Amino acid sequence: MTWQPLLLPAIVACLWVTMPGFLVNIALGCRRITAFLLSPLSSVGLIVAAAILAPFAGIGWGPLPVGLLTVVCALSGFGLRLLLQKKRGIPVTSRRKVRASWRTRLLSPPILALITIVGSFALMLRHVRNILGTPYAFSQAFDAVFHLNEVRWILEHHNASSLDAQAMTSASWASHFYPAAWHGIASLIGLTTGVHHVSLLTNATIIATVCVIWPVSMMALVYVLTPGNLLRYTLLPTGVVLAALPAFPLTFVEHGVLYPNLLGYCLLPSLYVPFLALVGQAKRLNMSKIQVFGIGALGSAGAAFAHPTAALMMLVGSTLIAVYLGVRFAVNRRPLRPTLLLSGTALLLGAITVIAWIKIRPPGEAAETWGPITDTVGAVGSTLIHNTVNGIPQHIALILTVLAIVGALRTRFYLPLMLWAVSAFLWVVAASWPMGPGRRALVGVWYSDVPRLYAQMGLFLIPAAAIGVGYACKWIARTSRVIARTPLRRTGLAAVVAAVLVTTSQANPMMDSFIDRVEKTYTLGARTNSVNRQELVFMTQLPGVVGPNDKIFANPWRGEALSYAFSGVNISTRHLLAYESRADVYLVKHLNEIDTDPIVCEALKAGGYTHVMYFSGPEIDFTYAAYPGLQHLEKAKKLELVLQNGNASLYKVTGCNA
């Protein structure tokens, strides 16, 4: 299978999630390494903002609104920076720096960070390739129906605003808000390249998110958090560590499927950087206030409209950072003013976090859709070694957790470990606490869904583990003494450790088994969860039978709803949980009585249906369920079979015209 059809969409996707933000960051006066490390954060924010503003400006969704907003933000940022510099008497052009030797530049932290990102890109791309197997693969999971159809809907309606995203599935009087940053990026790729196959666009967005946004975002956080004497030892191994844990980011590629969560949480590490710069804790990235607030605002919008829980964890993490720094300032007897300022910031952020936690949490029983899966002892144990993969223990997770703890204790830098500890606690609550008010209050924001908290725990382990691995490298260098003498030798040691991590974490039985498991959710076969081979062929044949003014009635639970994503035909329901009218409900129960029940024809006319689609077989994620009105449709005289392939059938309504 050639991967050429995916090549152009993937390249364009990677450019869209980096270049707009990079240009704006440069215009704001950021150094090149800062501008690049924070480019996905700003880029997604620009895409989200352009998607929301475009309908108000009367501009259809596509490259134009994103390009216009990028230019406006870049010019505004550049102009504001010039005004502030002139007001403060700062020269607009900086003095020319002395060029360092090529070896010095090659071993500098910015270059090592870029090398690490390239290596991580290759490792993550290998995982994605093995999972997909083909450029046209698509997830067979429950929520893939909505995500694929939403991309098609945006392509057709040229509206990627999160304020209107649920217009595809909700009743006209219901709220249409849905965080649609993911779908906006996927559709933007299609409208840029002319490729409108939703599988290609989705897979290109997966590559851009997992292989670009994720490594760049995590590298931004590690770059500013790592203590100075550990940085050279930490950077190269970090690129392997962030590709070594099944928990994150690939859990979101398998479970759900939760593409919006994937995008939001991949952005999350870099979203902490502007806040760390604001409180004076962003090592090596000297950001001015205009850069902090400009990039922070764009990044917050991007994360919130990717998925609100990512923004919520930004608030949680920022509160912890303020508390940690406030306590440290008090213990070290730092000046009273910054200590009080941090304490006040912590209280304010804590209050905002609690309010957001309550507001975002789904109402009633929806906050506890899923129950616990183990006891407390088992859950606590899983925080250290994670879940087994098909019975295979994750020894790499245990090693990284131990290194994270040891590194924090030895360096006395506890902030990354604190963030991990909070996420681990939330995982224990979701995985083991009995269902009830306490569990709903703490993890109801995530629908009490265990895999979501598991992925989050994996995310926050990575920066702590990276610093732990860096400390281990430093300990080895200090023990040998010869290695620690020159930057080249120290970097060489880090490269050797990274190579060892590659051989032990990327192609072991546990990782191979996990990739095989995820691959099954993207495999198209004779009997798969949502759509099988015969049904997919059937969908591609629909445009030749169904006209643009026709409308198909279908029960979506056996995969029929994906006909919209793969063929663009007008269908009654585009998601499993979409709004159903009273007429639709009646048809599900009585459609096969069309020859004797005149109400059936009235219901078909009310919905404007000219055709009926039916797939026999099991439901998505559930055992076989019978729908009385959809049985034996071939016996109805007022329904004419016009297309069939295997278990997929399309009937034309012929007897309701009188």
Question: What do you see in this structure?
Answer:
- The longest helix is centred in the C-terminal third of the chain and has 31 residues, at 450-480.
- The protein folds into two domains: 4-90 and 105-306 and 361-520, no CATH class; 533-653, no CATH class.
- It is globular, with a radius of gyration of 27 Å.
- The chain is 62% helix and 3% strand.
- α1 packs across α10, α4 (39-57) crosses α5 and α7 (109-132) packs across α23.
- The protein starts with a helix and ends in a 5-residue tail after the last strand.
- A four-stranded mixed β-sheet has the order 1-2-4-3.
- The protein has helices at residues 4-16, 19-27, 32-37, 39-57, 63-88, 102-106, 109-132, 144-157, 181-193, 198-225, 231-241, 250-254, 259-278, 289-306, 308-331, 336-360, 376-385, 395-411, 415-432, 437-443, 450-480, 487-505, 509-520, 533-541, 563-567, 582-590, 598-607, and strands at 552-554, 611-615, 639-645, 648-653.
- With 658 residues, it is mainly alpha-helical.
Distance between the termini: 52 Å
Low-confidence stretches: none
Q: How do the strands line up in the largest sheet?
A: 1-2-4-3
> What fraction of residues sit in β-strands?
under 5%
| Estimated helix fraction | 55-70%
- Radius of gyration, rounded? 27 Å
Outline the biggest β-sheet. Answer: 4 strands, mixed
Shape: globular
Q: Overall pLDDT, averaged? A: 91
Instruction: Report the strand count.
Output: 4
Number of domains: 2
